[in-house]
Amino acid sequence: MRILHASPDAPGVDIYANGVRIARNLRYQGFTQYLPAPPGRYRIRVFPTGRTINPVIDTVLTLLPESVTTEAIIGTLADIQIQPFRELRQPMRAGRLYLRFAHLSPDAPSVDLTLADGTRLFRGVDYTESTDYIELAPRTYNFQLRLAGTENVVLQVPNITLRPDRFYTIYAVGFADGRPGLQVLIPLDGISYLPA
Predict the structure, then answer these.
(1) Which residues does the UniProt record annotate as the domain DUF4397 (predicted)?
(2) Residue 91: Cβ within 10 Å count
(3) How many angstroms separate the CA atoms of 32 and 14, rounded?
(4) What angle do CA 106, 112, 131 make, to 5 degrees?
(5) How confident is the model at residue 132 (pLDDT cuts 50, 70, 90)?
(6) Which of 33, 34, 39, 43 has the most C-beta neighbours closer than 10 Å?
(7) What is the pLDDT, as a whole number, of residue 196?
(8) Is pLDDT at 195 greater than 70 in this prediction?
(9) Helix %, strand %, coil % for the chain, to 5?
(10) What is the CA radius of gyration of the chain?
């Protein structure tokens, strides 16, 4: 698993799993490396950096055998929580890529992810939801976020080069109405590293 800090108004955090610190001063928009771990239950506690009392998150996660997961710290500091996004391996055609979308902006309404020409890749994605992967050709894309079902563009995401034989997730983060503003993170997913 890896951890994504996607809570836009939360400070940097230290993260502990069963009492062992697994991340130090993870800041907004930051990802940890993928951390190998045996399957089972883990008590996850998240503290503002440098503190070890009064965690902002204290929860239990269950890791399944042979799973790859991004555990996202989401919401505002007032309602901060962890949301798992499991990466499900699927057959990959050589020379293609696989893309999905996850909506982590706490004040944004339902959105569509489109291309600049209006082609809708994903429709009506609500906060905390993620889509299935779709297959695309590798190239440089110009993406847009639009209010669901409308032509109203709320974010332009130009010149994103996606390479073949990889899995990606586009994470929408930040505030639709506030600072830090709406933006996307496009990391390579861990299942890209697994043998076919």
Answers:
(1) 2-114, 115-185
(2) 6
(3) 11
(4) 80
(5) very high
(6) 34
(7) 59
(8) no
(9) 5, 50, 45
(10) 17
> Of 122, 112, 113, 104, whose CA–CA distance to 148 is shortest?
112
Q: How distant is the alpha carbon of residue 76 from its chain centre?
A: 15
Same CATH topology for 1-86 and 90-196: the answer is yes
Alpha carbons 96 and 56: distance in angstroms, whole number: 41
Average pLDDT over residues 190-194: 86
Domain map (residue ranges) of the chain: 1-86, 90-196
CA distance 15 to 38: 18
Read off the pLDDT of each residue in 80-104 and give the average, rounded to a whole number. 93
Gap between the Cα atoms of 71 and 137, Å rounded: 28
Please tell me the class of the 90-196 domain.
Answer: mainly beta
Domain covering 1-86 assigned CATH 3.20.20.30 in the classification? no
Beta-strand runs (E) in the chain? 2-5, 13-17, 20-26, 40-48, 57-63, 69-74, 81-86, 97-103, 111-115, 120-125, 134-136, 139-147, 153-162, 167-173, 183-185
Burial of 152 (0-12, 13-18, 19+ CB in 10 A): exposed
| Residues 72, 103 contacting (CB under 8 angstroms) | no
The pTM assigned to this predicted structure is 0.95
